[in-house]
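Job type: complex structure
Entries:
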Amino acid sequence: MTGTRILIGKELLESWRTFRLPVVAALFLIVGLSSPLLARFLPEIIQAAGGEQFVTIEIPIPVAADAADQLWKNLGQFGAFAAIILSMGAVATERERGTAAFILSKTVSRGAFLAAKAIAIGVVLLVATILAVVVGWIYTAVLFEPPSVGGWIALALLAWLGLAAWASITSLGSTVTGSVAAAGGLGFLAFLILSVLAAIPNVGRLTPGGLAEPALNLAIGTPVELGDVVVPVVATTALIVACLAGSVWSFQRQEL
Amino acid sequence: MSASPARVVCLGLTKRFGGAQGVLAVDGLDLDVPAGSVFGLLGPNGAGKTTTLRLISGLARPTTGAVSIDGRPAATDGSAARRGIGVLDQDPRYYGWMTGRELVELAGRLQNLTVADARARAGTTLELVGLADAARRRVGGYSGGMRQRLGIAQALVASPSLLILDEPVSSLDPEGRRDLLSLIEHLRASATVIFSTHVLADVERICDRIGIMDDGRLVTEGPLDDLLGRYAQPVFRIEPEPGQSRTVARLVATLRATAWVDRVTEEGEGARLIVSVTDEATASAGLLPLVVAAGLQVAVYERARPTLEDVFLRLVGRVPSSREAA
């Protein structure tokens, strides 16, 4: 698509200059640092807080799997919020400010405009996720034992796929409603609904939440059946593709 | 590098906002802008000028009708027809985090210039619009006039064969206005220029052809001299000596009751009277005696050359609202 490569460059430069990339990267870095620490020192934290004065809580000795689990949970929450915040203004802000008209008066298709935004958001989330997982791996290795490198790479990719799903749902909201607030609201609503659905057996595998089980099993080296990975990956990818296609379909019918 | 100027044809162009019962912004517009002309689109606020320009530039889609640029449809998303079009919006907004030079280079790259060409052309066009010194500053710190100059630079960077400018001089100071109008005049050989404005004097100065819109319709269109010949009536200008408001009012009443007087316009609370007449010979013989009979002491009495404003007044019934401000 004409102009996509140029627009991706512009989007990435914008992410850097407007501090989106550094801020998201810093947030993910904190997630990566804190998750293994929290997993390792949770018993001490509870003890220090006086949690055993009234009731006795049996806390198993923390292991590397707990660090992976904690990292996944934190990425699934803080990361998801970051993905939603990052994407809610993707199209709406450009339309409100009139900059979309500047770009689209050139030989750029609306599909290329949206593709560049989606790719740039994906890159920002990927960089931040890699940062979180690399730091998380190092701290897990220091505090526990070195985990499987391949398993943590799989965890990173699956976490990124889940975040990309929240970003694409929110981008769809941004395109359809043309409002930053409405897009953010739709992103959070979708996050809540899909998180609830993820707890339902069989249905959960078809949501981004279904990526958790295979991701954590791969991270701790537990054998995983191919179907357990493929089904949530395909379902989440289909959700992303559907949201992007919906965005293009809607945007092509809008006035600027 | 630039292609030859483009011809723009609108056929039955109609734009309705808000469904079948919504606002009719442009109503069945038929227009043929010859290649290489400077076309001025005039009209009061809400006449449909901006919508028309957005339809031509492909930023809005017509409800019915079509626009073609050199025979190719303009409305197609990201089409090749846009390759040779430079567009300046009425209230241009750009990325505040970019420098002026980066923005113009981006515009050039998105119009298929190579990196080297975009860089070279950005320097030239920024120089042309007087922004060379501010080229490395962030756009977020630009004033309204600078943003408008930047908008003109980004529209010109790829040497367009069609330039669409919506109120291009509205934020410029007198010097900037003069410079931009000269620039547009010089583009005549290489591009077709369509621009909207409220400033009738600017249109008179540089346009080959003029279209006047009102309520979404094209009221008339043609070369300035043709319009003056077709619509402008003979005009007499009278400037009374100060302090004769009652006498002026009496004369105005008399003139308005006279058969061969079409319209009397008072400017500056009676400081100047513009008298449009239907019969020049009768008026030449009869107007001055009426002035004398009213007892008015006159500083200036002359037969004036009809202007575009007279045509505009006759066709639309009022002058553009921001005329005084401009």
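Summary: The longest helix of chain B spans residues 280-294. The longest strand of chain B covers residues 23-33.
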